[in-house]
Amino acid sequence: MKTKILILLIFLMVGFNSSFSQQLTGRAYYQASNQIMIRIDSADMSPEEIAEAHEIMKKPWQREFVLTFSQTESNWKQSETLAGDTDPSDFDGMTISLSGSGNEILYKNLVDQSYVQEQEFMGKEFLIQDDLESLAWELVEETKKIGEFTVRKAVFTQIIDSKGFSAEMVEMENVKDSIQIIAWYTSEIPVAHGPENYFGLPGLILEVHNGGRAYHCEKIELNPSGTPVEIQIPSQGKVLSSKEFDAMQKESIKQLENRYQGKPGENEKRIRVGG
């Protein structure tokens, strides 16, 4: 029932703003950060060294992205000024790096409910094509201001796959977990787009929190005249569905683990996460 009401709200909003929204294009610039807990053994470190370590370890997760959109399409990519800045951070022998080149594009089409995403993995380019997954948003009667815009709150609970110990605490097993997604959107910009994989609200999403990662909109350009908006559709790479890509990733990582188990360099501490 809630889903039907949300769809009706979006339909009415778009119809009411038709003269404006049919021409609406723009760019929204977001700052992305991870809300991570970093534990450091401080026995032999000064307060200044601890502060420096925290800054170094947080840096790889702080990135800037741009969402380019029309009424029905959008693409999401890392800011061009930072796309090439993928050097890993290093502290006390531990290397932290983000996978991907930083140039990948996520394209969403709200008319046919599909997406196309460029993804680099192990030096190869892939093109993931699949259907958008509908998000069961619940609209909340709570508002605040982000810049000049009044934004409203929406939430939904996402079920994810994770690892956990079995009841006997002997081995790891696949378990289902849930996280609450909190979004803030503005109906003053009547498009159903948002950062990363988030979409489907009656207004542009300006802020998202998913428990660990957060996106904050820093700047918006509407109907820019100087540099007209162009929606890019990714086209490079081997075409796979989302399930095919996930299966390929898992198999490749498993093969690497088997190949390098016990080889020189095994004591090097390295953290690598998807970017």
TrEMBL record:
Transmembrane segments: none annotated. The keyword Signal applies. Keywords: Signal. It holds the Pfam family Porph_ging. The keyword Nucleus does not apply. It comes from the Bacteria. Residues 255-275 are annotated as: Disordered. Residues 1-21 form the signal peptide. InterPro entries: GLPGLI. Residues 265-275 have a biased composition (Basic and acidic residues). This is GLPGLI family protein.
